[in-house]
Amino acid sequence: xxxxxxxxxxxxxxxxxxxxxxxxxxxxxxxxxxxxxxxxxxxxxxxxxxxxxxxxxxxxxxxxxxxxxxxxxxxxxxxxxxxxxxxxxxxxxxxxxxxxxxxxxxxxxxxxxxxxxxxxxxxxxxxxxxxxxxxxxxxxxxxxxxxxxxxxxxxxxxxxxxxxxxxxxxxxxxxxxxxxxxxxxxxxxxxxxxxxxxxxxxxxxxxxxxxxxxxxxxxxxxxxxxxxxxxxxxxxxxxxxxxxxxxxxxxxxxxxxxxxxxxxxxxxxxxxxxxxxxxxxxxxxxxxxxxxxxxxxxxxxxxxxxxxxxxxxxxxxxxxxxxxxxx
Length: 327
Hints:
Elements: E1 11-13, E2 16-18, E3 22-24, E4 29-33, E5 36-40, E6 47-51, E7 59-62, E8 66-70, E9 76-81, E10 87-92, E11 99-103, E12 106-111, E13 117-123, E14 128-135, E15 140-143, E16 149-152, E17 157-161, E18 168-173, E19 182-188, E20 191-197, E21 215-226, E22 232-244, E23 253-257, E24 264-265, E25 268-269, E26 272-280, E27 286-295, E28 300-305, E29 310-315, E30 319-323
Parallel strand pairs: 15-19
Antiparallel strand pairs: 1-2, 3-4, 4-5, 5-6, 7-8, 8-9, 9-10, 11-12, 12-13, 13-14, 15-16, 16-17, 17-18, 19-20, 20-21, 21-22, 22-23, 23-26, 24-25, 26-27, 28-29, 29-30
C-alpha cells in the first residue's frame, strides 16, 4: 500500500517557531539526522537517499511525489523528488507563521499582512494558488484535519469548503461571537462540530491557539451542526480545553483535556484542576469526565483501538481507558 502524505505540524507560539520535523510521501519518509536530510523506505526502513546541504532545523513538507524543504531564515525553499532526492526547483520561501496546515502536499496559508487578509491553498509543485479567499477584518480561518476548511466572522457567519478545490460545502449562522480568536471544525459524517476560541483579552497570553502544532486550545464553545444544511443541533460551553486536531477517529466522540491553562501567581505557575472530558458529538453531552486536583502540568495523547472500541488517554500523571459499547 501507499503511505498517506502526512507531516508533523509546525506552530508559532509567542516568538518561537516550531518546524515540521518529518515528512511522508508515497515513496519515502524523510527526516533530519543532524545536518543530513535522510529518506527511508517506509516498508523496510532502508535508506533511499541522503543530502547534507540543508541546515539543522529545516522545515519539511511532504507531497505524493516530492519533499518541500524550507531552511529557517532562508530566502528560498527547495522542491526535491521523493524517489532520488534530486533538486526539482527552487521556490520563494513560504513563512512558516502563515502556514496553517497541509493538504496532499499543498500548504494552506493565512496571510494577515495584506489587506484584505487572505486564506488560500498553495501548490509548491506548480508554484501557484489552487484557490484563494478574502477574509473580512473580523473573520478567522476555520481549520480541520484535511477534509474541510473555512471562514467564520464575529457575526457568526460560517462558510466551510473543500480544501482541495475551494468548493463551498456548508454554510451556517452561529450567532454573534464576542472575542473570536480562532476556530476549528471536526467532521463526523452527518454531523459537524465547530470549536470556537473566545479567550478574553486579559487571558490571551495564556492560551496557545495554533492548530499547526496539532491541537486547538479553546475557551469558548462547541457547536454541533447538521452536515447537509448547516442547521444547529446543539451548543455547549467549553472552558480552557485542548482538542487534538487528529480527531475524529472512528467513534462519535471528542476527547479533550485542559492542560494548556496554567494561571500565574507572581513569577510561578499555580497548579489547577486537571479535567479530562469525553464529549458525545451527537448531543454535546459529556459521556465521561475525570478531574484531578492541583495538576501542575498536563499534556495528553490518545490512542484508539478499532477492534475493541477503546480510547486511551495518556498523560504525564494519568492513564485512562474508555471502553465504548453500542446502545
